[in-house]
Every structure is written in structure tokens, then in C-alpha cells.
Amino acid sequence: MPSLAAAAAGLRTLMPDQRYGRVVSVRGALIEVDGLAGAARIGSRITLRSHAGAIDAEVIGLDHGIAHCMPFHEPEGIASGSRAELTAGQLDLRVSPGWLGRVVDGLGRPVDGKGPLPQGPERRRIKAAPPPASSRARVGTRIETGVRALDLFAPLCRGQRLGLFAGSGVGKSTLLSMLARWSECDVAVIGLIGERGREVQEFIEDDLGEEGLARSVVVVATSDEPALLRRQAAWTTLAVAEHFRDAGLDVLCLMDSVTRFAMAQREIGLAAGEPPATKGYTPTVFAELPRLLERAGPGLPGQGAITGLFTVLVDGDDHNEPIADAVRGILDGHVVISRQIAERGRYPAIDVLRSVSRTLPHCLDPEDNATRLAARRELATWKDMEEMVRLGAYRPGASPEVDRAVGIAPRIEELLQQDRHDRSFAARDFAALNAILEGTDEDAL
């Protein structure tokens, strides 16, 4: 009886017949298919037959018996009347430990030339729901990232989700590579969403390196890929991370960038006929962002955790633009990478006064937290008076607090300077910071 019940359940998952439709319209990236009424569903896979070969597509909308589809590849060769075959439901993956050290695309297919991927026994949906909020474990203890500015002023905990907010060309990718190499974790899952094709191999070979790649899975969808594949790559990144989390491992999930995921979703929404809202972003963009980001975080008790670091490419260096504002409200902290600091030549160009970790102050020892707060006060005082001091409008001796900040803040800034190959250690950094504040070690740096 159990085997018969299992067979019956398996049969119910099969399509009772094969359904075909015909392409009736192609408008840009949107392909309209007739003849699949009652069978096609949102997220269903469709294979389009063209003169150039088979093209996979996904149903993104339904309208009076017409299925609105978007292809995973360029729709070259598609013509009116081309056959559309309904092939399967939503995509799934069969992740295994053999994926470590591999580079895959948004559909989980290998793109590194190393042969087929080992397939695990369990099928995992690419787009899945996060664990129930009432059942999830709490955020864990602090982990060292190896990046001095973060460990001192915006510490990261296991299961925390932190946003890296930056404009273009201010060292965001270099910071990500430092975090990928040095952060304490069992597995790193790195999603390069809408990345420049030229930089993919540079990141893998130079920034990540052989040692970093050995414990990582890299998911790539370059900027020239169709919007559907770019969006799919973000979901695939979280699905792979969830596999290792469910195996009890601590996972570091790096995604660059959430903004390009939102742009892909906007393109899909506009093609499906959604009305544009703020800066052209459609309503589904703001609905999909929490569904994506909430998948990171602690797992259920007994599982591992996904520590998420998500970059946000702020438009025109406006940190209050719609995507940055929405993501900041979802995540457990934000790190601001400043163009002004980068122009001064201090890297990583993290603005520690504008960066916040919502796990503070509990993730630090009382002594370290007191040191952090004292350093922030000195930096804040220096920032308020910096222009006056440089212009000569401030007279030394007028304020003991300003005099102290003038002597200490530049030394703190020097401490925060870090080369991409210079790994830091939190205990040593807090000792150096404390020595600067007390003035007991002129060579603390």
C-alpha cells in the first residue's frame, strides 16, 4: 500500500497530456502565446521552437487566454505561429557539496568548463519561501570579517543581513572580495547579478583566488543577459545558500547587486503591463525585494545560518533613492561607502558615522563597545569642525573637545586604511584603537 500511494502521488504530479500553443505576437522581450488557456500558470516553463533552435521561456502573465512569456535567451528566430510547448512547472535545483568551487549561471548550469555538476538527491525550488518567522533561530554571535572598519564600527553576526550602499567606482567590488576571502564561514555563495562580463574572471581568479573559490559557489548573470535570467540568478544564489544552511553549515551569501535584481524585475514588470511607480519601478519590485532578502538569515533550530551581504548601487550617489530606501528598511544594518572618502584615498571608503549594525551593542563586549562609542564621538567632533580647522577659522584652545579630536581623528582614519591583501584581526584592532584614544602608543598603527 505505501508503494501504491507513492506511485499515485507521483502520477498526480505529471501532466495528463502535452499542451501546445502558438506564438501570436512578439513585442520586444514579451512573447504572447495562444492555446494554453487552463494549462499555463505563472512561473510555468515553455519551450519555443524557432529556426535558431529551442528557446526556454517563462510565463510572467496571463490575459484572456493569452500567456505572456519572457525568454531566458535572446528570442532570435521566433516568428508568428512558432510552436510553444508547455514543458514543466517552476524551476528547481539539485544542489550537492560537489558544487563547491564551481561557477554556474542563473539556471544552475555550469559555465566554468569543468564538466557537468554533481546532482544531489533533493530537488529544491529556486524561488522558495523563507523559514517561518516564529520558528527561526535568533541571530548568532559576532563573526570576524577581516575588514577593520566593519569589525570596529559595524560588526557582523551569524545570520545577520547587512547592506553595502555605494555609488559606482568607489571600491565596492574590492571590498566584496576581501569579505569573501576572510569572513568566518563554512561556505560562501556569491551572486554576481548584472555584473560586467570583463570583471567576472578577474573577480574569480584575482580577488577570490583558488583558496576562496574552493569553499564557494559563484552564480553569474552578466549585464548582457536577458532580464529573466538576471532575476533568476538572484533566486538561484539564495536557493544554493539555503541548501548548505539546511545541511547545518554557516553560509556567507554575497550578492552584487540587489539594485540590478530590482532593475531586472522592473523590466519584467513593465513588459507584463504593470504601471510604473517611483522612478519607473513597478509595484512588484517592492514586493519581490523582501521575498528575496528575507530568505537570508538564521535557519530553523538545528540548521545553520545564512549571513547576507547585499550591495546596493545607489543611483547618482543618492542614498535615499527608492531601492536604497526600501532595502535599508528590510536589512539588519547598512554600510555606506563614500565617494568623498574614496577621493581622499582612504580604502575601504567606509563612512563609519553613517554606517549602522542593528546587532549593536549586544554583539560586542562592554569594553569594546565603549571604545567604539568613544572613537565615534571623536570622529563626529572632527567632522563637524573639519572645514573650520582647515580654513584656519578655529583657534586652538577654544574647545578641549575639538583640540582632542583634531589630534585623534586623523590617527583613527589612518587605522581604518587597509590594503586589499592586509587581513585584520578584531582583538588587535580594538587594542590599537584603544591605544589611540588613550594616547599611550604613538606607534599603535
TrEMBL record:
<keyword id="KW-0547">Nucleotide-binding</keyword>
<keyword id="KW-0375">Hydrogen ion transport</keyword>
<feature type="region of interest" description="Disordered">
    <location>
        <begin position="110"/>
        <end position="138"/>
    </location>
</feature>
<dbReference type="GO" id="GO:0030254">
    <property type="term" value="P:protein secretion by the type III secretion system"/>
</dbReference>
<dbReference type="GO" id="GO:0009288">
    <property type="term" value="C:bacterial-type flagellum"/>
</dbReference>
<keyword id="KW-0653">Protein transport</keyword>
<dbReference type="GO" id="GO:0005524">
    <property type="term" value="F:ATP binding"/>
</dbReference>
<keyword id="KW-0406">Ion transport</keyword>
<dbReference type="InterPro" id="IPR040627">
    <property type="entry name" value="T3SS_ATPase_C"/>
</dbReference>
<protein>
    <recommendedName>
        <fullName>Flagellum-specific ATP synthase</fullName>
        <ecNumber>7.1.2.2</ecNumber>
    </recommendedName>
</protein>
<dbReference type="GO" id="GO:0008564">
    <property type="term" value="F:protein-exporting ATPase activity"/>
</dbReference>
<keyword id="KW-0067">ATP-binding</keyword>
<dbReference type="GO" id="GO:0005737">
    <property type="term" value="C:cytoplasm"/>
</dbReference>
<dbReference type="Pfam" id="PF00006">
    <property type="entry name" value="ATP-synt_ab"/>
</dbReference>
<dbReference type="GO" id="GO:0046933">
    <property type="term" value="F:proton-transporting ATP synthase activity, rotational mechanism"/>
</dbReference>
<dbReference type="GO" id="GO:0044781">
    <property type="term" value="P:bacterial-type flagellum organization"/>
</dbReference>
<keyword id="KW-0813">Transport</keyword>
<dbReference type="InterPro" id="IPR000194">
    <property type="entry name" value="ATPase_F1/V1/A1_a/bsu_nucl-bd"/>
</dbReference>
<comment type="function">
    <text>Probable catalytic subunit of a protein translocase for flagellum-specific export, or a proton translocase involved in local circuits at the flagellum.</text>
</comment>
<dbReference type="InterPro" id="IPR005714">
    <property type="entry name" value="ATPase_T3SS_FliI/YscN"/>
</dbReference>
<dbReference type="GO" id="GO:0016887">
    <property type="term" value="F:ATP hydrolysis activity"/>
</dbReference>
<keyword id="KW-0963">Cytoplasm</keyword>
<dbReference type="InterPro" id="IPR003593">
    <property type="entry name" value="AAA+_ATPase"/>
</dbReference>
<keyword id="KW-1278">Translocase</keyword>
<keyword id="KW-1006">Bacterial flagellum protein export</keyword>
<dbReference type="InterPro" id="IPR027417">
    <property type="entry name" value="P-loop_NTPase"/>
</dbReference>
<dbReference type="InterPro" id="IPR022426">
    <property type="entry name" value="FliI_clade3"/>
</dbReference>
<keyword id="KW-0066">ATP synthesis</keyword>
<keyword id="KW-1005">Bacterial flagellum biogenesis</keyword>
<dbReference type="InterPro" id="IPR020003">
    <property type="entry name" value="ATPase_a/bsu_AS"/>
</dbReference>
<dbReference type="InterPro" id="IPR050053">
    <property type="entry name" value="ATPase_alpha/beta_chains"/>
</dbReference>
<dbReference type="Pfam" id="PF18269">
    <property type="entry name" value="T3SS_ATPase_C"/>
</dbReference>
<dbReference type="GO" id="GO:0030257">
    <property type="term" value="C:type III protein secretion system complex"/>
</dbReference>
<comment type="similarity">
    <text>Belongs to the ATPase alpha/beta chains family.</text>
</comment>
<feature type="domain" description="AAA+ ATPase">
    <location>
        <begin position="158"/>
        <end position="342"/>
    </location>
</feature>
